[in-house]
Amino acid sequence: MSIELIVLDVDGTLTQSKVTYTQNGDEIKSFSVRDGLAIESWVRLGKKAAIITGRNSKMVERRAKELGIKYFYQGCKDKLLQLQKLCDELDLSLENVAAIGDDLNDYKMLKAAGLSFAPYDASHYLFDIVSVKLGKSGGQGAVREMIEYLLKQEGLEEKFLELWR
Predict the structure, then answer these.
(1) What's the rounded Cα separation, in Å, for the pair 13 and 55?
(2) Among 55, 63, 67, 101, which one is least packed by beta carbons within 10 Å?
(3) Which residues contact residue 80 at a Cβ distance below 8 angstroms, ignoring those fewer than 6 apart?
(4) Contact criterion met (CB below 8 Å) for 117 and 132
(5) pLDDT bucket at 19, cuts 50 / 70 / 90
(6) Where exactly are the structural domains of the chain?
(7) Per-residue DSSP letters for 3-39?
(8) Is the pLDDT score of 122 beyond 80?
(9) Residue 48: predicted pLDDT
(10) Given this model, what pLDDT does residue 46 score?
(11) How far is CA 2 from each of CA 14, 19, 79, 148, rounded to the nearest angstrom?
(12) Mean pLDDT lowest for which of 18-22, 100-104, 125-129?
């Protein structure tokens, strides 16, 4: 089984599980640059990355563009349905997908993916169904840890390092 697509949740996965608003009502999110480098590298290695999130945010859209994430879906109430549509579009099986999420709205998607990951601080309800419970928390390197796990599993560590040598 080869992983061709990683699917990323946002709040609690790419960011800490917090939403901050300014006095003007603007939303603030912080993203890990280490996660970003790993995602960008994954894409540069010829693999695919997608964001499937339940909320809508201009900042997340901007971050996806910065990282070269071509598949970006916001406001998804049924993440598994969106993932199945994307797999059909890309002619991929769910077994070729690795997904990461932190809460119950990710449950069905994580259960269906070939490999699934949950950050250290995810809902404990997910730990019984995911393939890997990560040692890092959301927004603090969990996505990087997932990608490094996949790079080892896929035999891509040397190619990953060569991108930066």
Answers:
(1) 13
(2) 55
(3) 108, 109, 112
(4) yes
(5) confident
(6) 5-162
(7) --EEEE--BTTTB-S--EE-TTS-EE----HHHHHHH
(8) yes
(9) 98
(10) 96
(11) 23, 35, 22, 15
(12) 18-22
| CA 7 – CA 25 distance, rounded (Å) | 29
Other CB atoms within 10 A of residue 60 CB:
23
User: Looking at residue 18, what is its pLDDT?
Assistant: 85
> Mean pLDDT, to the nearest integer, of 46-57?
95
What does the block give as tokens for 121? 């601080």
pTM score of the predicted model: 0.94
Residue 136 near residue 120, CB atoms below 8 Å: yes
Confidence of residue 126 (pLDDT cuts 50, 70, 90): very high
Question: Token pair of 7, please?
Answer: 């699917």
Tokens of 122: 């995810």
Q: Following CA atoms 125, 73, 46, 133 in sequence, which dihedral angle do they give, to the nearest 10 degrees?
A: -10
**How do beta strands 27-28 and 20-21 pair?**
antiparallel
Tell the CATH topology of 5-162: Rossmann fold (3.40.50)
As given in the structure block, the two tokens for residue 41 are: 């590298």
Cβ burial, residue 5 (10 Å; 0-12/13-18/19+): buried
How is 31-71 classified by DSSP, letter by letter? Answer: --HHHHHHHHHHHHTT-EEEEE-SS--HHHHHHHHHHT--E
